[in-house]
Design goal:
mainly alpha; Cytochrome C Oxidase, Chain A; globular
Protein backbone atom coordinates (compact mmCIF):
# COMPACT_ATOMS: atom_id res chain seq x y z
CA UNK A 1 0.00 0.00 0.00
CA UNK A 2 1.40 3.37 -0.96
CA UNK A 3 0.05 6.72 0.08
CA UNK A 4 -0.62 9.31 -2.59
CA UNK A 5 1.53 12.45 -2.35
CA UNK A 6 -0.17 15.81 -1.80
CA UNK A 7 -1.21 17.90 -4.77
CA UNK A 8 1.67 20.31 -4.30
CA UNK A 9 5.35 19.51 -4.21
CA UNK A 10 6.01 22.31 -1.73
CA UNK A 11 7.49 20.91 1.46
CA UNK A 12 5.71 21.95 4.66
CA UNK A 13 8.03 23.64 7.15
CA UNK A 14 7.06 22.76 10.71
CA UNK A 15 7.88 25.22 13.47
CA UNK A 16 7.42 22.65 16.29
CA UNK A 17 7.09 25.38 18.94
CA UNK A 18 4.16 23.62 20.64
CA UNK A 19 6.18 20.38 20.53
CA UNK A 20 8.93 21.97 22.61
CA UNK A 21 6.63 23.56 25.21
CA UNK A 22 4.73 20.33 25.90
CA UNK A 23 7.97 18.33 25.97
CA UNK A 24 9.62 20.46 28.64
CA UNK A 25 6.48 20.51 30.77
CA UNK A 26 6.46 16.71 30.66
CA UNK A 27 10.18 16.35 31.33
CA UNK A 28 10.02 18.71 34.29
CA UNK A 29 7.13 16.81 35.83
CA UNK A 30 8.88 13.49 35.13
CA UNK A 31 11.86 14.55 37.25
CA UNK A 32 9.63 15.88 40.04
CA UNK A 33 7.35 12.86 40.26
CA UNK A 34 10.19 10.43 39.65
CA UNK A 35 11.83 11.78 42.82
CA UNK A 36 8.55 11.35 44.73
CA UNK A 37 8.32 7.76 43.46
CA UNK A 38 11.85 7.00 44.63
CA UNK A 39 11.09 8.48 48.05
CA UNK A 40 7.95 6.32 48.24
CA UNK A 41 10.06 3.22 47.51
CA UNK A 42 12.70 4.19 50.09
CA UNK A 43 9.99 4.65 52.72
CA UNK A 44 9.39 0.89 52.66
CA UNK A 45 13.00 0.48 53.76
CA UNK A 46 13.26 3.60 55.96
CA UNK A 47 9.71 4.19 57.25
CA UNK A 48 10.73 7.19 59.40
CA UNK A 49 12.06 9.15 56.43
CA UNK A 50 10.55 12.67 56.62
CA UNK A 51 8.45 11.43 59.53
CA UNK A 52 7.83 14.94 60.87
CA UNK A 53 6.63 16.39 57.53
CA UNK A 54 2.93 15.65 57.06
CA UNK A 55 2.82 16.36 53.35
CA UNK A 56 5.72 13.94 52.73
CA UNK A 57 3.90 11.02 54.31
CA UNK A 58 3.56 7.90 52.16
CA UNK A 59 -0.24 8.12 51.71
CA UNK A 60 0.20 11.57 50.16
CA UNK A 61 3.28 11.12 47.99
CA UNK A 62 2.15 7.78 46.55
CA UNK A 63 -0.94 9.14 44.70
CA UNK A 64 1.04 12.28 43.80
CA UNK A 65 3.68 10.08 42.17
CA UNK A 66 1.22 7.81 40.35
CA UNK A 67 -1.08 10.54 39.11
CA UNK A 68 1.85 12.85 38.40
CA UNK A 69 3.66 10.34 36.20
CA UNK A 70 0.47 9.58 34.23
CA UNK A 71 -0.97 13.07 33.82
CA UNK A 72 2.17 15.16 34.40
CA UNK A 73 4.68 13.13 32.37
CA UNK A 74 2.93 10.80 29.92
CA UNK A 75 0.07 13.06 28.83
CA UNK A 76 2.24 16.14 28.11
CA UNK A 77 4.77 14.07 26.18
CA UNK A 78 1.87 12.52 24.25
CA UNK A 79 0.68 16.05 23.47
CA UNK A 80 4.19 16.96 22.34
CA UNK A 81 4.42 13.97 20.02
CA UNK A 82 0.87 14.57 18.70
CA UNK A 83 1.94 18.13 17.82
CA UNK A 84 4.91 16.60 16.01
CA UNK A 85 3.40 13.66 14.12
CA UNK A 86 -0.20 14.65 13.33
CA UNK A 87 0.72 17.66 11.16
CA UNK A 88 3.30 15.53 9.35
CA UNK A 89 0.84 12.69 8.80
CA UNK A 90 -1.70 15.19 7.51
CA UNK A 91 0.73 17.08 5.29
CA UNK A 92 -0.09 20.46 6.85
CA UNK A 93 1.22 22.74 9.58
CA UNK A 94 -0.19 22.61 13.08
CA UNK A 95 -3.31 24.77 13.18
CA UNK A 96 -2.05 27.00 16.00
CA UNK A 97 1.26 26.88 17.84
CA UNK A 98 -0.01 29.64 20.15
CA UNK A 99 -2.99 27.51 21.12
CA UNK A 100 -0.59 24.63 21.73
CA UNK A 101 1.51 26.78 24.05
CA UNK A 102 -1.61 27.97 25.92
CA UNK A 103 -2.75 24.35 26.25
CA UNK A 104 0.53 23.36 27.90
CA UNK A 105 0.32 26.30 30.31
CA UNK A 106 -3.28 25.56 31.35
CA UNK A 107 -2.54 21.83 31.67
CA UNK A 108 0.56 22.49 33.80
CA UNK A 109 -1.38 24.79 36.12
CA UNK A 110 -3.98 22.05 36.54
CA UNK A 111 -1.31 19.48 37.41
CA UNK A 112 0.33 21.79 39.95
CA UNK A 113 -3.04 22.47 41.61
CA UNK A 114 -3.86 18.75 41.64
CA UNK A 115 -0.54 17.77 43.23
CA UNK A 116 -0.73 20.59 45.75
CA UNK A 117 -4.14 19.22 46.74
CA UNK A 118 -2.79 15.67 47.06
CA UNK A 119 0.21 16.67 49.17
CA UNK A 120 -1.97 19.27 50.99
CA UNK A 121 0.84 20.98 52.93
CA UNK A 122 -1.65 23.28 54.66
CA UNK A 123 -3.80 20.33 55.83
CA UNK A 124 -6.85 22.03 54.36
CA UNK A 125 -10.26 20.43 54.91
CA UNK A 126 -11.90 22.16 51.95
CA UNK A 127 -13.74 19.76 49.62
CA UNK A 128 -12.66 21.94 46.70
CA UNK A 129 -9.01 21.41 47.57
CA UNK A 130 -8.63 17.94 49.09
CA UNK A 131 -8.47 14.61 47.32
CA UNK A 132 -11.67 12.55 47.09
CA UNK A 133 -9.89 9.54 48.55
CA UNK A 134 -10.73 7.27 45.61
CA UNK A 135 -7.88 5.53 43.82
CA UNK A 136 -7.03 7.20 40.50
CA UNK A 137 -9.86 9.72 41.09
CA UNK A 138 -7.88 11.85 43.54
CA UNK A 139 -7.73 15.16 41.67
CA UNK A 140 -9.70 18.00 43.24
CA UNK A 141 -12.45 19.87 41.31
CA UNK A 142 -10.35 23.00 40.71
CA UNK A 143 -7.60 20.97 39.05
CA UNK A 144 -10.18 19.08 37.00
CA UNK A 145 -11.52 22.34 35.56
CA UNK A 146 -8.07 23.32 34.28
CA UNK A 147 -7.34 19.85 32.90
CA UNK A 148 -10.66 19.52 31.08
CA UNK A 149 -10.31 23.00 29.55
CA UNK A 150 -6.76 22.20 28.43
CA UNK A 151 -7.85 18.91 26.86
CA UNK A 152 -10.64 20.66 24.97
CA UNK A 153 -8.06 23.14 23.69
CA UNK A 154 -5.88 20.24 22.53
CA UNK A 155 -8.85 18.58 20.83
CA UNK A 156 -9.75 21.79 19.01
CA UNK A 157 -6.20 22.28 17.79
CA UNK A 158 -5.71 18.69 16.67
CA UNK A 159 -9.11 18.20 15.06
CA UNK A 160 -8.78 21.45 13.13
CA UNK A 161 -5.34 20.36 11.93
CA UNK A 162 -6.77 16.99 10.94
CA UNK A 163 -9.72 18.58 9.11
CA UNK A 164 -7.30 20.56 6.94
CA UNK A 165 -5.21 17.52 5.98
CA UNK A 166 -3.96 17.00 2.43
CA UNK A 167 -3.45 13.24 2.76
CA UNK A 168 -6.82 11.55 2.39
CA UNK A 169 -5.75 8.14 3.68
CA UNK A 170 -5.20 7.82 7.41
CA UNK A 171 -2.16 6.03 8.75
CA UNK A 172 -2.87 4.01 11.92
CA UNK A 173 -0.93 6.40 14.18
CA UNK A 174 -3.64 8.96 13.41
CA UNK A 175 -6.34 6.50 14.45
CA UNK A 176 -4.62 5.88 17.78
CA UNK A 177 -3.84 9.56 18.42
CA UNK A 178 -7.41 10.67 17.68
CA UNK A 179 -8.76 7.71 19.66
CA UNK A 180 -6.59 8.67 22.64
CA UNK A 181 -7.86 12.26 22.59
CA UNK A 182 -11.53 11.29 22.25
CA UNK A 183 -11.41 8.42 24.75
CA UNK A 184 -9.51 10.53 27.28
CA UNK A 185 -12.25 13.17 27.20
CA UNK A 186 -14.92 10.48 27.66
CA UNK A 187 -13.12 8.51 30.37
CA UNK A 188 -11.85 11.49 32.36
CA UNK A 189 -15.24 13.16 32.64
CA UNK A 190 -16.96 9.94 33.75
CA UNK A 191 -14.27 9.17 36.32
CA UNK A 192 -13.91 12.61 37.85
CA UNK A 193 -16.98 14.76 37.48
CA UNK A 194 -20.38 13.21 38.31
CA UNK A 195 -19.60 12.21 41.89
CA UNK A 196 -18.00 15.60 42.56
CA UNK A 197 -20.54 17.93 41.01
CA UNK A 198 -23.78 16.03 41.66
CA UNK A 199 -23.16 14.55 45.09
CA UNK A 200 -25.83 13.50 47.58
CA UNK A 201 -28.54 11.20 46.24
CA UNK A 202 -27.66 12.14 42.65
CA UNK A 203 -24.04 10.97 42.67
CA UNK A 204 -22.63 7.46 42.36
CA UNK A 205 -22.95 5.54 45.61
CA UNK A 206 -21.99 2.14 46.96
CA UNK A 207 -21.50 -0.58 44.37
CA UNK A 208 -22.15 1.78 41.45
CA UNK A 209 -19.45 4.09 42.76
CA UNK A 210 -16.99 1.17 42.97
CA UNK A 211 -17.82 0.11 39.41
CA UNK A 212 -17.30 3.62 38.08
CA UNK A 213 -14.09 3.92 40.11
CA UNK A 214 -12.55 0.84 38.51
CA UNK A 215 -13.94 1.53 35.07
CA UNK A 216 -12.03 4.79 35.30
CA UNK A 217 -8.94 3.39 37.05
CA UNK A 218 -8.45 0.66 34.47
CA UNK A 219 -9.38 2.85 31.53
CA UNK A 220 -6.73 5.40 32.54
CA UNK A 221 -4.27 2.75 31.43
CA UNK A 222 -6.28 1.08 28.67
CA UNK A 223 -8.02 3.99 26.94
CA UNK A 224 -5.69 6.88 27.77
CA UNK A 225 -2.10 5.65 28.22
CA UNK A 226 -2.41 2.71 25.82
CA UNK A 227 -3.76 4.33 22.61
CA UNK A 228 -1.50 7.36 23.05
CA UNK A 229 1.57 5.20 23.59
CA UNK A 230 0.76 2.80 20.76
CA UNK A 231 0.05 5.72 18.44
CA UNK A 232 3.48 7.25 18.91
CA UNK A 233 5.09 3.79 18.69
CA UNK A 234 3.32 3.13 15.38
CA UNK A 235 4.73 6.40 14.07
CA UNK A 236 8.29 6.22 15.40
CA UNK A 237 8.98 2.49 14.92
CA UNK A 238 9.04 2.59 11.10
CA UNK A 239 10.81 5.95 11.25
CA UNK A 240 13.54 4.64 13.54
CA UNK A 241 13.94 1.33 11.70
CA UNK A 242 13.70 3.00 8.26
CA UNK A 243 11.30 0.22 7.26
CA UNK A 244 7.63 0.16 6.24
CA UNK A 245 5.01 -0.98 8.75
CA UNK A 246 4.41 -4.71 8.36
CA UNK A 247 0.62 -4.64 7.99
CA UNK A 248 -1.71 -1.65 7.96
CA UNK A 249 -4.76 -3.92 8.10
CA UNK A 250 -3.44 -5.71 11.17
CA UNK A 251 -2.83 -2.37 12.86
CA UNK A 252 -6.48 -1.39 12.38
CA UNK A 253 -7.63 -4.74 13.77
CA UNK A 254 -5.63 -3.93 16.89
CA UNK A 255 -7.08 -0.42 17.15
CA UNK A 256 -10.76 -1.35 16.85
CA UNK A 257 -10.57 -4.41 19.09
CA UNK A 258 -8.78 -2.35 21.76
CA UNK A 259 -11.62 0.18 21.77
CA UNK A 260 -14.32 -2.50 21.79
CA UNK A 261 -12.83 -4.78 24.46
CA UNK A 262 -11.05 -2.63 27.01
CA UNK A 263 -14.11 -0.92 28.49
CA UNK A 264 -15.23 -4.23 30.05
CA UNK A 265 -12.05 -4.94 32.00
CA UNK A 266 -12.30 -2.68 35.05
CA UNK A 267 -14.42 -5.08 37.09
CA UNK A 268 -11.59 -7.63 37.26
CA UNK A 269 -10.14 -5.41 40.01
CA UNK A 270 -13.11 -6.39 42.17
CA UNK A 271 -13.05 -10.17 41.77
CA UNK A 272 -14.25 -11.73 45.04
CA UNK A 273 -15.71 -8.33 45.85
CA UNK A 274 -19.37 -7.39 46.39
CA UNK A 275 -20.22 -7.21 42.67
CA UNK A 276 -22.41 -9.63 40.69
CA UNK A 277 -20.72 -12.91 39.83
CA UNK A 278 -21.67 -12.55 36.18
CA UNK A 279 -19.88 -9.19 35.99
CA UNK A 280 -16.71 -10.76 37.38
CA UNK A 281 -16.97 -13.49 34.74
CA UNK A 282 -17.52 -10.98 31.92
CA UNK A 283 -14.45 -9.02 33.08
CA UNK A 284 -12.38 -12.22 33.05
CA UNK A 285 -13.54 -13.18 29.55
CA UNK A 286 -12.82 -9.73 28.12
CA UNK A 287 -9.43 -9.68 29.86
CA UNK A 288 -8.46 -12.70 27.76
CA UNK A 289 -9.99 -11.20 24.62
CA UNK A 290 -7.41 -8.44 24.96
CA UNK A 291 -4.91 -10.88 23.49
CA UNK A 292 -6.43 -9.96 20.09
CA UNK A 293 -5.19 -6.33 19.97
CA UNK A 294 -2.03 -7.20 21.87
CA UNK A 295 -0.95 -9.98 19.51
CA UNK A 296 -1.94 -7.84 16.51
CA UNK A 297 0.42 -5.10 17.68
CA UNK A 298 3.30 -7.37 18.70
CA UNK A 299 3.10 -9.28 15.41
CA UNK A 300 3.05 -6.00 13.51
CA UNK A 301 6.01 -4.49 15.35
CA UNK A 302 8.22 -7.56 15.19
CA UNK A 303 7.23 -8.04 11.56
CA UNK A 304 8.23 -4.44 10.82
CA UNK A 305 11.82 -4.97 11.95
CA UNK A 306 12.26 -8.38 10.33
CA UNK A 307 15.71 -8.31 8.81
CA UNK A 308 16.54 -5.18 10.81
CA UNK A 309 17.33 -6.71 14.21
CA UNK A 310 21.00 -5.79 13.83
CA UNK A 311 20.00 -2.13 14.28
CA UNK A 312 19.31 -2.78 17.96
CA UNK A 313 23.05 -2.60 18.61
CA UNK A 314 23.24 1.10 17.78
CA UNK A 315 19.72 2.47 17.21
CA UNK A 316 18.62 3.92 20.57
CA UNK A 317 14.97 4.77 19.72
CA UNK A 318 14.55 1.27 18.28
CA UNK A 319 15.94 -0.27 21.48
CA UNK A 320 13.37 1.54 23.58
CA UNK A 321 10.47 0.61 21.28
CA UNK A 322 11.33 -3.09 21.06
CA UNK A 323 11.95 -3.32 24.81
CA UNK A 324 8.62 -1.56 25.40
CA UNK A 325 6.85 -3.94 23.00
CA UNK A 326 8.29 -6.97 24.81
CA UNK A 327 7.09 -5.57 28.13
CA UNK A 328 3.71 -4.82 26.53
CA UNK A 329 3.30 -8.49 25.66
CA UNK A 330 4.36 -9.52 29.17
CA UNK A 331 2.17 -7.02 31.03
CA UNK A 332 -0.86 -7.92 28.92
CA UNK A 333 -0.28 -11.62 29.55
CA UNK A 334 0.00 -10.92 33.27
CA UNK A 335 -3.16 -8.82 33.24
CA UNK A 336 -5.22 -11.50 31.52
CA UNK A 337 -4.13 -14.30 33.83
CA UNK A 338 -4.53 -12.12 36.93
CA UNK A 339 -8.22 -11.94 36.02
CA UNK A 340 -8.52 -15.68 36.72
CA UNK A 341 -10.08 -16.18 40.14
CA UNK A 342 -7.51 -18.76 41.20
CA UNK A 343 -4.53 -16.48 40.51
CA UNK A 344 -6.35 -13.35 41.67
CA UNK A 345 -6.88 -14.97 45.07
CA UNK A 346 -3.09 -14.98 45.50
CA UNK A 347 -1.94 -11.76 43.84
CA UNK A 348 -4.72 -9.28 44.67
CA UNK A 349 -3.68 -6.48 47.03
CA UNK A 350 -0.05 -7.70 47.01
CA UNK A 351 3.10 -6.02 45.72
CA UNK A 352 2.80 -8.19 42.60
CA UNK A 353 0.17 -5.73 41.35
CA UNK A 354 2.56 -2.79 41.85
CA UNK A 355 5.17 -4.48 39.67
CA UNK A 356 2.49 -5.28 37.10
CA UNK A 357 1.15 -1.73 36.84
CA UNK A 358 4.65 -0.27 36.55
CA UNK A 359 5.38 -2.58 33.62
CA UNK A 360 2.57 -0.89 31.70
CA UNK A 361 3.22 2.73 32.61
CA UNK A 362 7.00 2.62 32.76
CA UNK A 363 8.11 -0.59 31.03
CA UNK A 364 5.93 0.04 27.99
CA UNK A 365 4.58 3.55 27.60
CA UNK A 366 7.42 5.49 29.21
CA UNK A 367 9.92 3.57 27.09
CA UNK A 368 7.84 4.41 24.01
CA UNK A 369 7.85 8.07 25.08
CA UNK A 370 11.63 8.05 25.49
CA UNK A 371 12.01 6.55 22.01
CA UNK A 372 9.77 9.21 20.48
CA UNK A 373 11.72 12.00 22.18
CA UNK A 374 15.08 10.65 21.03
CA UNK A 375 13.81 10.63 17.45
CA UNK A 376 11.67 13.78 17.34
CA UNK A 377 13.41 16.32 19.56
CA UNK A 378 16.68 16.56 17.60
CA UNK A 379 14.55 17.13 14.49
CA UNK A 380 12.34 19.68 16.22
CA UNK A 381 15.43 21.66 17.28
CA UNK A 382 17.24 20.86 13.99
CA UNK A 383 20.29 19.65 15.88
CA UNK A 384 21.87 16.22 16.28
CA UNK A 385 21.34 14.37 19.54
CA UNK A 386 23.91 15.63 22.05
CA UNK A 387 25.16 12.19 23.14
CA UNK A 388 24.31 8.77 21.71
CA UNK A 389 26.42 7.20 24.45
CA UNK A 390 24.42 8.92 27.17
CA UNK A 391 21.21 7.75 25.50
CA UNK A 392 22.55 4.20 25.50
CA UNK A 393 23.37 4.47 29.21
CA UNK A 394 19.86 5.77 29.77
CA UNK A 395 18.40 2.71 28.06
CA UNK A 396 20.39 0.21 30.10
CA UNK A 397 19.79 2.01 33.41
CA UNK A 398 16.06 2.06 32.66
CA UNK A 399 15.97 -1.55 31.44
CA UNK A 400 18.07 -3.12 34.19
CA UNK A 401 16.61 -0.88 36.89
CA UNK A 402 13.08 -1.79 35.88
CA UNK A 403 13.90 -5.52 35.75
CA UNK A 404 15.24 -5.33 39.32
CA UNK A 405 12.29 -3.22 40.46
CA UNK A 406 9.57 -5.35 38.90
CA UNK A 407 11.07 -8.81 39.44
CA UNK A 408 11.52 -8.09 43.15
CA UNK A 409 7.85 -7.11 43.41
CA UNK A 410 6.62 -10.08 41.36
CA UNK A 411 8.55 -12.67 43.36
CA UNK A 412 8.01 -10.95 46.70
CA UNK A 413 4.39 -10.16 45.99
CA UNK A 414 3.52 -13.71 44.95
CA UNK A 415 5.16 -15.07 48.10
CA UNK A 416 3.31 -12.39 50.08
CA UNK A 417 -0.02 -13.59 48.67
CA UNK A 418 0.72 -17.23 49.49
CA UNK A 419 1.55 -16.28 53.06
CA UNK A 420 -1.61 -14.19 53.41
CA UNK A 421 -3.62 -17.22 52.37
CA UNK A 422 -2.01 -19.27 55.16
CA UNK A 423 -2.82 -17.30 58.33
CA UNK A 424 -2.32 -20.43 60.47
CA UNK A 425 1.43 -20.30 59.82
CA UNK A 426 2.11 -16.62 59.09
CA UNK A 427 1.16 -13.51 60.99
CA UNK A 428 0.74 -10.29 59.05
CA UNK A 429 3.87 -8.83 60.66
CA UNK A 430 5.84 -11.87 59.48
CA UNK A 431 4.75 -11.22 55.91
CA UNK A 432 5.94 -7.62 56.24
CA UNK A 433 9.33 -8.73 57.57
CA UNK A 434 9.72 -11.23 54.73
CA UNK A 435 9.14 -8.47 52.16
CA UNK A 436 12.03 -6.29 53.37
CA UNK A 437 14.75 -7.81 51.12
CA UNK A 438 12.48 -7.36 48.09
CA UNK A 439 11.81 -3.75 49.06
CA UNK A 440 15.56 -3.09 49.18
CA UNK A 441 15.90 -4.41 45.63
CA UNK A 442 12.87 -2.35 44.59
CA UNK A 443 14.50 0.83 45.90
CA UNK A 444 17.78 -0.03 44.18
CA UNK A 445 16.04 -0.60 40.86
CA UNK A 446 14.10 2.63 41.31
CA UNK A 447 17.37 4.51 41.89
CA UNK A 448 18.73 3.25 38.55
CA UNK A 449 15.52 4.27 36.79
CA UNK A 450 15.69 7.74 38.35
CA UNK A 451 19.33 8.21 37.32
CA UNK A 452 18.30 7.25 33.79
CA UNK A 453 15.59 9.92 33.85
CA UNK A 454 18.12 12.59 34.81
CA UNK A 455 20.49 11.44 32.06
CA UNK A 456 17.63 11.68 29.57
CA UNK A 457 16.74 15.18 30.80
CA UNK A 458 20.34 16.37 30.55
CA UNK A 459 20.70 14.87 27.08
CA UNK A 460 17.53 16.59 25.88
CA UNK A 461 18.63 19.89 27.45
CA UNK A 462 22.05 19.79 25.79
CA UNK A 463 20.47 18.80 22.48
CA UNK A 464 18.14 21.80 22.67
CA UNK A 465 20.83 24.29 23.70
CA UNK A 466 23.85 23.14 21.66
CA UNK A 467 24.85 25.38 18.74
CA UNK A 468 22.96 24.55 15.56
CA UNK A 469 24.94 23.16 12.62
CA UNK A 470 26.13 25.87 10.24
CA UNK A 471 24.65 24.17 7.17
CA UNK A 472 21.97 21.83 8.45
CA UNK A 473 20.53 19.31 6.08
CA UNK A 474 16.92 18.25 5.95
CA UNK A 475 15.66 18.22 9.56
CA UNK A 476 19.08 19.25 10.85
CA UNK A 477 20.87 16.41 9.11
CA UNK A 478 19.14 13.88 11.35
CA UNK A 479 16.48 12.62 8.99
CA UNK A 480 16.07 8.86 8.58
CA UNK A 481 12.87 8.48 6.61
CA UNK A 482 10.23 10.68 5.01
CA UNK A 483 7.93 12.60 7.34
CA UNK A 484 5.04 11.93 4.96
CA UNK A 485 2.88 8.87 5.54
CA UNK A 486 3.94 7.23 2.33
CA UNK A 487 7.40 6.75 3.83
CA UNK A 488 5.82 4.98 6.78
CA UNK A 489 3.38 2.85 4.83
CA UNK A 490 5.33 2.03 1.70
CA UNK A 491 5.11 -1.68 1.09
CA UNK A 492 2.72 -2.32 3.98
CA UNK A 493 0.32 -5.17 3.52
Amino acid sequence: MRMQPPDTTERVQHDDIAVKWALWAGVGFMCLFGILGFIAAVKFVVPDLFWSVNWMSWPRIRPAHVQGMIFGWLLPVYMSMFYYMIPRLCGVKLYSDKLGIATTIVWSIGILIAIAGLLNPTDSLSLWWMTKGKEYEEFNPIANIFLVVAWLMLLGNMLTTFARRRYTQMYVALWYALGCMMWTAFVYVIGNWPSQLLGGDHGFRGLNDANINWFYGHSVVGLIATPGGLGIAYYFLPKSANAPIYSHKLSLVGFWTLGAIYIWNGAHHMIYGPIPYWLQTVATIFSFLLFIPVLALVTNFFGTIRGEWHQLRTNVPLKFIIAGTTFYLLVSTQGSFQALRSLNAVTHFTDWVIGHSHMALFGTFTLYAFAACYYAIPRAYKRPLYSEGMADWHFWLSFIGFLLFSTALWIGGFNQGIQWNDPAHYTFIQTVEDMKPFWHVRAGGGALMLIGMFLFTFNMYKTATSPAPETPGDDGGARLISDSPQGTLAGAR
